[in-house]
Structures are given as structure tokens and as C-alpha cells.
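Q: What structure does this chain adopt?
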Amino acid sequence: MARIRIKRLESELFKLLSTVISFKLRDNNLTMVTVTGVKLTNDLSYLRVFFSHFDETKTEDVLKSLNKSSGFLKNEIAKAKFMRRIPDISFEYDKLEENARDLDKIFAKIQAEQKEDK
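A:
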């Protein structure tokens, strides 16, 4: 039963953080940041926010800007009033898109090798 509540809170936090990062933060490093997922611990004290950015070379700058704005994000969570205790926020770059591109390259290489063998 508790896991259902955590999933619901993760869904609400995902929507809230996506909106706040996209529309309320005025940092140039955060212009094309997408929240890809959130993970809340069982005791509701820590929140991991996964993000992606269109330019992988600026990942460190984006991470610094997100960490700098974590206080503002915690304030926005408190204003939403769906949690009594506001979790500590940490940010992680989501490497899913990079891994998918690498797999596509591998599959294309295998496919090209198979065509050459025929």
C-alpha cells in the first residue's frame, strides 16, 4: 500500500518539477532541460531527479545550475502542499538516450556487415 502512495507522489513531483524547470527557472543553462524521471525513497526524505539535455557537452553546467536552484524547487514543492516533509533533491544525468544511440550504431554496423557478407 505504501508503494502505491510513493508512485503517486513521484507522478505529482514529476509533473511539478517538469513545469517549474521549463517555465519558472530563468537560467540560460536550463533552456532545453527535460525531466525524464523522478525516484523517491521509501521514507520520502530523498528525491532523485533524472534529466536530459540536448547538448551533452554542457551537462556539467546544467547540473551545477540545477543544484543551485534546488532551494527554489524545494520551495515550489512546499507551495504545492501535497507533502508534509520536503525531500532533499539530487540531480542525475539520464544516459538512456546516449545508450540508445550507441546501440543504434552497433545495430547499423552489424546490419552493414551482414549486407557485405551476402
